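Q: What structure does this chain adopt?
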Amino acid sequence: MKKNLIELMAQDLALPVVPAAMARVIQAFDAPNPSIENLARDIADDPVLTMHLLRTANSAYFGLRRSVVTPLDAVHLLGFDKV
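A:
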């Protein structure tokens, strides 16, 4: 058992790196007065985050008659709690 732990600790393990855009989004929520515009801009810097945000905003749950096409519109619609 102890030998397995020593072998595991000796391995060169690579931890996943948080994308820069995601790190900025997380920091935006830690700010005392987060800005919707800054949050939307940071999300727009990452295509995957943008896709997930727009998919959520355009879901049937919200029942909009129009499509949400920008991260800023999506953040306005969803609000900080849902984003």
